[in-house]
Amino acid sequence: MSEAERSGAADSTEDELVAVARAVKTRGLRGELVAELLTDFPERFERLENLIAVEPDGKRLSLALEEHWFQSGRIILKFAGYDSIEEATALIGYEFAVPEAERVELGEDEFYDWELAGCRVETIEGQQLGRVREVMKTGGVEMLVVESNVGEREYLIPLAETICVEIDTESKLIRVDPPEGLLGF
Fold first, then answer.
1. Distance (Å, rounded) from C-alpha 180 to C-alpha 185?
2. What's the pTM?
């Protein structure tokens, strides 16, 4: 990424982004920000020089990352050109992202939640169930929350290989082979 500092606009507003952190408050007197981590790969910050700041309204801004460190399960970010509490306050609520092309590559049969969101879900017999609204973390097997195509019904489908027998993120399709009773019919 060759983004400019503080006032520079991101190269393209069309690029898909992957959020890696969200600013929640300022810290210290030098313009540092405390941010929630939105990535399972915090080590990625070691090689980042720039981040794309996304305003709540979607406007993008390119920022040069001067330094970062981890503290109490969060990340502290210091951007070039943001050298006071007042300047850093302007970034509270922003998400910081990288282009999707720079996401951490996962292994075979591993998926990001955002890749599954919006996928059509159907049974192996071809019965349309709906679309994935979200992936619910349960502490055990993750669950696909599927909004029904008809009515206000919702299905909770375990994200297990024996049930989700085909996941095609390119085609945005998940085929399931649910055990008897899972779907309530």
1. 8
2. 0.63
What does the alpha-carbon distance between residue 76 and residue 25 come to, in Å, rounded to a whole number? 10
Q: Which amino acid is at 66?
A: E
Overall size of the chain counted in residues: 185
Burial, 17: exposed, middle or buried (Cβ in 10 Å; 0-12, 13-18, 19+)? Answer: buried
Q: Round to whole Å and give the CA distance between 6 and 86.
A: 14
- Cα separation, 82 vs 62, in Å, equals 13
Cα 176 from Cα 112, distance rounded (Å): 18
Only one residue has tokens 């981590």, namely 37
Residue-wise pLDDT tens digits, 70-100? 999 899 999 999 999 999 999 999 999 998 8
Residue 65 near residue 50, CB atoms below 8 Å: yes
